[in-house]
Design a protein that fits this description.
The structure holds two protein chains of two kinds. By secondary structure, chain A is of the alpha/beta class. In chain A, 41% of the residues lie in helices and 15% in strands. Chain A has 22 helices and 16 strands. In chain A, the strands form four sheets. In chain A, strands 2-1-3-4-5 form a five-stranded mixed β-sheet, covered by helices on one side. In chain A, α9 packs across α10 and α19 packs antiparallel against α20. Chain B is of the alpha+beta class. Chain B is elongated, with a radius of gyration of 17 Å. Chain B has a four-stranded mixed β-sheet, with helices on one face. In chain B, α3 (41-51) crosses α4 (55-64). The mean pLDDT of chain B is 95. In chain B, β3 and β4 form a beta hairpin. Chain B is 48% helix and 12% strand. Chain B has helices at residues 8-17, 25-36, 41-51, 55-64, 84-87, 91-101, 135-148; strands spanning 76-81, 106-111, 123-125, 128-130. The chains are: A alpha/beta, B alpha+beta. At the A-B interface, α1, β12, β16 and α18 of A face α2, α4, α5 and β4 of B.
Chain lengths: 515, 150
């Protein structure tokens, strides 16, 4: 009898709810029964609500079992799950799970599918094909394809990637860098992590393509310290890629040199801002730099540097393989292609959903998410992390489109969607927004450093009913100052969540802020 | 962990691992905290000398980053995610429970997002992230951590 192949994700969310224990239990049970199995550790498909999601290979199909615990394992063996037999946990073939098959998987298509740390499996799924194609077509063709794709920075700022790459390619200098921003600090976001844990070689290939396109021989990954498992996975991937000759000097005889250094963050939210990240990569405090100069002209160690988010970079191989036009064919208006939306917080089916732009918040939260986890009505939805506005339940029909969100004083950011039910106290969330800014401000500019502390105090006074009208006006003025005069988005956008709460949830400030 | 000196030789080994490059200061401090739990004044002096930086520079970096503890932690370290997604799932109550019940052998620190937001609330216990945590599961996790490392 040949060994049954079983996939158990080795990804933070799956592991956080018992995937490692399931893997150990499967191995033990198989040994005790004398039934050989082959365990493979894939990444997550992104359906966090189904984790741990175990798959058993049956011919061409992979039969999924959801929310498996170590305690379920003996019973699974008893019912014959190695032959794909029925069981309360059985979901059917993984490629028939509606939550997954209805997505537009462009960037994350290998996540869940492949054994994350197998270079062989990666190569069998088009791994390094785009890099080799880039070598054939030359750097200009790569930049043209990225420009034609309409890809914009997925870290949150939405800057056109093709323009950034062109700027770095044209900048004079014999040393240039690619800096991958993996400091995914926004609450409610985890798509960078899912990509790095599920398709680590995909990120390395993407960075090499970026390096080839702009003429950089060295790349850096700045990974947040809150992702220890990701760190282990990336370190192993880097070692394997180097050993196999996919990183280093004269890669595969192409004449192209490229290597990557992995750096860890140390718990600073603002280090996700690109210039603070560069400071941190240089070993200093993560203090935001004034712009200009742009990092594309004078970035890391003063050299021209492409700074891109993980998802931005990982979108590129398929753009090279399939053409920029194909990517631009998805999405709406100036929001081309796909985004990995992350359903988080009080939502029944939390997880990552890669869809073309234009889908509405309602389709994401009610369709994919199935409403709140608590079963209570949705009260507020924070989109785009701690600097993003809170939307009210009557704004859920807003399409996911950078400009449509900007038009209502909101932002899509990195695609995090945090759902709150009607028990949430939004005045508390407004105060938290200011407190978080006070805690994380790098301190370089006054509006952010001082404004956030004063903001938290003023909100506390409003909540306590002290001089409501005067304090409400003061808060508005303070928000104006922070928005207009802060150096970066930390201070400049903290007023977004605060103002959206004043606008939509004024009743939560006890008797109301403007009684 | 008692308040004992961090072995200077061990710190020197970390510095050498990063070729004593001053631009690796953050990475060196990450390694010091990962391996020794905190950064002492003596370590700051030693790093300043080894990397040819001023003590003020090293001190500034240590003070800037939340991860660089300047006092030894207790035997167990619990990081409670207190960011928005976890708050929407009751992390404020969980945090209150954790702080109240943790005991002297546990250092409790806030963290603003563990990136486990589809399975909130999340906590990290001794370097491992856990999801779907309520008060009972928190107690069980801490109990298991104590058993694993007592």
């Amino acid at each position: 009898m040949s060994a049954a192949t079983i996939y158990v994700p080795r990804e933070t969310t799956a592991v956080s709810v018992g995937a490692d224990e399931v893997a150990v239990a499967l191995a033990r049970e198989a040994r005790q029964r004398g039934t050989p199995i082959e365990l493979r550790r894939n990444g997550s498909w992104g359906a966090g609500w189904l984790e741990p999601l175990v798959e058993v290979v049956q011919g061409e199909q992979r039969i999924a079992y959801g929310n498996v615990s170590a305690d379920d394992v003996p019973a699974l063996f008893d019912t014959g799950f190695l032959e794909g037999a029925d069981h309360a946990r059985r979901l059917g073939p993984v490629n028939e799970i509606d939550y997954l098959i209805s997505q537009d998987r462009w960037t994350f298509w290998r996540c869940g599918l492949i054994e994350a740390l197998s270079l062989e499996d990666f190569a069998a799924h088009q791994g390094f094909k785009a890099l080799q194609k880039a070598w054939e077509t030359g750097p200009d063709a790569v930049i043209e394809a990225v420009t034609a794709s309409g890809l914009r920075g997925r870290g949150g700022a939405g800057f056109p990637t093709g323009i950034k790459w062109r700027t770095v390619a044209d900048a004079p200098g014999d040393q240039k860098y690619v800096a991958c921003n993996a400091d995914e600090g926004d609450s409610g976001t985890f798509s960078d992590r899912i990509l790095m844990e599920g398709d680590p070689f995909g990120l390395l290939e993407s960075m090499a393509i970026a390096g080839f396109a702009v003429g950089a021989s060295k790349g850096y990954i700045y990974l947040r310290s809150e992702y220890p498992l990701t760190h282990v996975i990336l370190e192993r991937a880097l070692r394997s890629a180097r050993e196999a000759g996919w990183l280093g000097a004269n890669i595969k005889g192409s004449g192209f040199d490229f290597d990557i250094e992995l750096h860890l963050g140390a718990g600073s939210y603002v280090c996700g801002e690109e210039t603070a990240m560069l400071e941190s990569l240089e070993g200093r405090k993560g203090i935001v730099r004034s712009k200009p100069p742009l990092p594309a002209h004078a970035g890391l160690f003063g050299k021209p540097t492409v700074v891109n988010n993980v998802v931005t970079l990982a979108s590129v191989p398929n753009i090279v393989n399939l053409g920029g036009e194909r990517y631009a064919g998805m999405g709406v208006n100036r929001s081309k292609g796909t985004l990995a939306f992350q359903l988080a917080g009080n939502v029944r089916r939390g997880g990552m959903v890669e869809k073309a732009f234009g889908i509405t918040l309602r389709e994401l939260i009610e369709g994919y998410g199935g409403g709140t986890a608590s079963g209570r009505p949705v009260k507020a939805v924070q989109v785009g992390g701690p600097l993003g506005a809170y939307l009210a339940a009557d704004q859920l029909d807003t399409p996911m489109d950078y400009e449509a969100f900007a038009a209502i004083g909101a932002m899509i950011g990195h695609g995090g969607i945090v759902v709150f039910d009607d028990t949430a106290n939004m005045a508390q969330m407004a105060r938290f927004a200011m407190e978080f800014c006070a805690l994380e401000s790098c301190g370089k500019c006054t509006p952010c450093r001082i404004g956030s502390t004063r903001g938290a105090e003023v909100i506390a006074r409003i909540i306590n009913g002290e001089n409501r009208d005067a304090n409400y006006d003061l808060l508005q003025e303070l928000c104006d100052t922070m928005e207009d005069a802060s150096l970066c988005a930390m201070g400049g956008m903290t007023p977004y969540p605060v103002r959206s709460i004043l606008r939509h949830f004024a009743e939560d400030f006890a008797a109301g802020p403007t009684q | 962990m008692t308040e004992q000196a961090i072995d200077a030789q061990a710190v020197d080994a970390i510095v050498q691992r990063f070729d004593a490059r001053p631009e690796m200061l953050v990475q060196i401090l990450v390694a010091v905290v990962t391996e020794h739990g905190w950064v002492s004044e003596a370590v700051i002096r030693q790093l300043a000398e080894a990397l040819n930086l001023s003590r003020a520079e090293v001190h500034g970096v240590v003070a800037y980053y939340h991860d660089f503890r300047t006092a030894p932690p207790a035997r167990h370290i619990v990081k409670l995610c207190e960011a928005e997604a976890c708050q929407s799932m009751g992390s404020r109550d969980l945090a209150a429970h954790a702080r109240e019940s943790a005991g002297k052998d546990v250092t409790v620190e806030p963290v603003y997002c563990l990136g486990n937001c589809a399975c909130a609330p999340a906590v990290m216990v001794d370097g491992k992230t856990y999801g779907r945590v309520d008060a009972a599961r928190f107690d069980a996790l801490l109990g298991a951590a104590r058993e694993a490392r007592s």
